[in-house]
Write a structure and sequence with these properties.
Blueprint (H helix, E strand, L loop, with lengths): L6 E4 L2 H6 L5 E4 L14 E2 L17 E13 L4 E12 L3 E7 L4 E7 L2 E8 L2 E6 L10 E10 L3 E3 L5 E7 L2 E5 L19 E10 L3 E4 L2 E8 L2 E12 L6 E4 L2 E6 L5 E6 L4 H8 L2 H12 L7 E6 L15 E3 L4 H9 L7 E3 L6 H18 L4 H10 L20 H18 L1 H14 L3 E3 L1 H12 L4 H8 L10
Parallel strand pairs: 3-6, 4-14, 20-21, 21-22, 23-24
Antiparallel strand pairs: 1-2, 4-5, 5-10, 6-9, 7-8, 7-10, 8-9, 11-12, 12-13, 13-18, 14-17, 15-18, 16-17, 19-20
The structure holds arginine and zinc ion.
The site of arginine has 13 residues, from α4.
Length: 474
């Protein structure tokens, strides 16, 4: 049931006037009740109990779509924005939370009615004033107006994300926590949604975001760029890049649109590697199966504009001209991480292990380096043995060497155990089974065992969960 099929009922005019509401409230059950009722339902949980970030995300609803309208002035470093969030309630809600870091909330409505707003830390709580919040299964629309100077967030591992000011504009990066600095939402990777991101910037600058460009309109001295992402996206993969860009629209050999945006300062230095994107994507399709999104591409910023590259959906961000290896890595994430997304941040190795192993496969196919050799190197690298990849000790370790290097070693061990044919079948099957969805480490080990018909407990115990480096790599 959605809000259009609910029964509408009207509160007595006096009560409505007292509460400064419109004269109608909505009810999912249509019971004959002429009074403004006390709050029904219970508050949605403030987090989804992620092992590293328990308050990240929110319970009680599932977002299906974000429509973000952002107006940014780089000189003043000021963002004026509206977030329209369409979600389905998963319980009767008397109130619910959104994650938002900083910014001033200037207005909030739920299904067109004013909501009471309160804030504590990064939790924004909305209480529908009518007392009748969304009911279980109902689709509801929340609109939040907000403005201010969006923050840069320093991660547990000291890297900077959120809203970064760049040499000629700004860049939004969000893994793991940065997206809450520029829009309110359900920012845990388990709640994916489609997005429309419209960004207005001073004329002469461009605004690049995920998905496909729907329109570009200049009015007076401002230009609005409207980007559409039809396939589900986790919040940490959303990006906006504002500045001067050389843009190019092309296609892969099989016809997939490719859009690249490159900071003119690094255009020369990145021209050659960027030109390789269509072929890398095509190789990815052959190796991992159908490309999961409607377009591919890249955003290349100046060195120093950001501290890390990120696989932002459809258009990974690179701080400076990328190497082929890094391009392969971030493009492989489109399948592993972006389409098949971790259920919790603990499952991070499923992202980084696959993306790193993709580099080993690329080396095998194009650099004449057998994966065995990359494996042996990773095995000998002490840094890869700091902790088991499936159990990073803390949020500061989510991007530690074992998550990447030992994560890739786990996949190589699976390949050795089942043989090449079964292995590539598993890789493609994993991508298609969990396409546009979420999966955990347990989902992965169960899937591999089911597909191969093998009991691989010893492999998982040693390579995925083992605290110590085994005596030999065999
Ligand atoms: N996922 C990115 C990659 O492809 C790395 C993100 C690093 N984030 C951080 N907070 N250190 O490797
Ligand atoms: Zn990665």
């Amino acid at each position: 049931m959605d809000q259009w099929t609910r029964v509408r009922r009207c509160a007595p005019a006096a009560v409505a006037a007292l509460l400064a509401l419109t004269s109608c409230t909505t009810s999912a059950n249509g019971e004959a009740n002429g009074r403004a009722t006390a709050a029904s339902g219970t508050p949605g949980a403030p987090g989804v109990h992620d092992p590293y970030f328990p308050e990240l995300g929110n319970g009680g609803y599932d977002v299906t779509h974000y429509a973000l309208t952002l107006d940014y002035d780089p000189k003043a470093h000021r963002l004026e924005a509206t977030a329209e969030i369409t979600a389905r309630a998963t319980q009767d809600l008397s109130a619910f939370n959104l994650d938002l870091h900083g910014m001033n909330v200037t207005s909030a409505t739920v299904d067109g009615q004013k909501a009471v707003v309160s804030r504590a830390g990064d939790e924004l709580t909305l209480t529908p004033r009518s007392g009748a919040g969304p009911t279980d299964g109902e689709t509801f629309r929340t609109v939040v107006g907000y403005s201010g100077r969006p923050a840069t967030i320093t991660d547990a591992d000291e890297s900077e994300e959120g809203w970064l000011r760049t040499a000629d504009g700004a860049l939004a990066l969000g893994e793991p926590l940065g997206s809450m600095a520029w829009f309110p939402g359900n920012h845990h990777p388990s709640d994916k949604a489609s997005y429309d991101i419209t960004v207005t910037v001073p004329k002469g600058l461009r605004a690049i975001s995920n998905g496909e460009l729907r329109s570009e309109r200049t009015r007076g001295d401002r230009t609005a760029f409207a980007w559409h992402s039809g396939e589900p996206m986790a919040g940490y993969l959303a990006t906006v890049a504002i500045g001067k860009f050389e843009t190019r629209a092309t296609r892969t050999p099989s016809g997939l649109p490719v859009f690249t945006a490159v900071d003119p300062a690094v255009a020369k230095g990145s021209a050659e590697s960027i030109a390789g994107i269509p072929d890398i994507v095509e190789w990815g399709i052959k190796t991992f199966g159908p490309y999961p999104f409607s377009s591919a591409g890249a955003i290349v910023e100046r060195d120093g504009d950001a501290g890390y590259a990120l696989e932002t959906q459809t258009k990974p961000v690179f701080p400076g001209p990328p190497s082929d290896g890094l391009l392969v890595h971030e493009l492989a994430h489109q399948w592993f991480g972006n389409s098949v997304t971790p259920k919790s941040w603990r499952d991070m190795w499923l992202n980084e292990g696959f993306a790193t192993y993709a580099q080993w496969l690329w080396d095998e196919d194009f650099a004449n380096i057998p994966a065995d050799r990359n494996f042996a190197e990773a095995f000998d690298n002490k840094a890869n043995w700091a902790f088991p990849p499936a159990e990073p000790p803390s949020g500061a370790d989510l991007f530690g060497d074992p998550v990447y290097g030992r994560g890739a070693m786990v996949l190589h061990k699976v390949r050795e155990a089942v043989g090449d044919d079964a292995f590539f079948g598993i890789v493609r099957g994993w991508a298609s089974t969990h396409r546009h969805s979420n999966a955990s480490t347990d989902d992965f080990t169960a899937y591999v065992e089911k597909k191969s018909g093998k009991d691989l407990k010893a492999l998982w115990d040693t390579w995925l969960y083992g605290k110590k480096k085994p005596a030999t790599s065999r």
